[in-house]
Amino acid sequence: MVDVRDDSFYAAVGGHETFVRLVDEFYRGVATDPVLRPMYPEEDLGPAAERLTHFLEQYWGGPTTYSEQRGHPRLRMRHAPYKVNPDARDRWMLHMRAALDSLALAPLHHAELWDYLERAAHSMLNTFDD
Ligand code: HEM
């Protein structure tokens, strides 16, 4: 694939297929979540799943499709319209952790990815209101 280094974390964990599996599994969880599901503006979660897949792929050294389509990530700003309180954050992390576990990556890869996702989720918190 063009522009993807063989030594990227993206390539090491299995490339596109791995990130699609991660995000699809995550959204399967979101679809059943009574707090998170209503936050997603579109009826179909497919486009949101695609944006998250592209973002994560780009972050880990894969194709830069995310920025080509969406520009600078500015993730905190993009989450400002949504109430990301501790409950929403914990639910996001629960579904993401289950999705990550389902990949059965090598322990170091699993740990590196989880460390990032956990920190990113904490950084998205934007309210303590219920
Ligand atoms: C902490 C709890 C979080 C909640 C409740 C949450 C919720 C949402 C919602 C409702 C959207 C709009 C759906 C869409 O149209 O795409 C969204 C978008 C998005 N989220 Fe989150 N999110 C959380 C954390 C994160 C984290 C930790 C990341 C990154 C690691 C992330 C990455 C994204 C991306 C890339 C988009 C699409 C941005 C765009 O280009 O418009 N989110 N999120």
TrEMBL record:
This is Globin. Gene3D superfamilies: Globins. Its cofactor is heme. InterPro entries: GlbO/GLB3-like, Globin-like_sf, Globin/Proto, Globin_bac-like_CS, Hemoglobin_trunc. The keyword Metal-binding applies. PROSITE patterns: GLOBIN_FAM_2 (PS01213). CDD domains: TrHb2_Mt-trHbO-like_O. Keywords: Heme, Iron, Metal-binding, Transport. Belongs to the truncated hemoglobin family. Group II subfamily. The lineage of its organism: Bacteria, Bacillati, Actinomycetota, Actinomycetes, Micrococcales. The keyword Metal-binding applies.
